[in-house]
Amino acid sequence: MPDPELHRIRDALITVVDASPEDNTPSDVYEIQVFGVSVLIRRRAQWGPATEVPYVHIEDQGEGPGLLLVEVNNGGEHAHPRPLTHGVPA
Question: What residues does 22 pair with on adjacent strands?
Fold first, then answer.
């Protein structure tokens, strides 16, 4: 696998990794890190009846008590408390 491309834009770091058919990733993988949050975006193959559907993974990389607000497709905000050690929510 080739080395990922790294791009810095202001406070954000964007990483791009080439597609890898060996691990069922039909698209390049993009990770954006900014404000202590990591957002990974790619396409996933063979998800139910659909093929090559968008996949988004969001991770709050902070430590201690906190809150991550996420909205998908204008469906309203959903609060995700940052888990403490051992997966216990804050």
Answer: none
Per-residue pLDDT of the chain (90 residues; tens, 9 = 90+): 567 899 999 999 999 998 877 776 778 899 999 999 999 999 887 766 667 788 999 999 888 888 999 999 999 999 999 876 555 555
DSSP string, 15-82: EEE--BGGGTB-S-EEEEEETTEEEEEEEES-BTTBSSEEEEEEEE---SS-EEEEE-TTS-EEEEEP
Region class of 18: left (phi > 0), else alpha (psi between -120 and 50), else beta:
beta
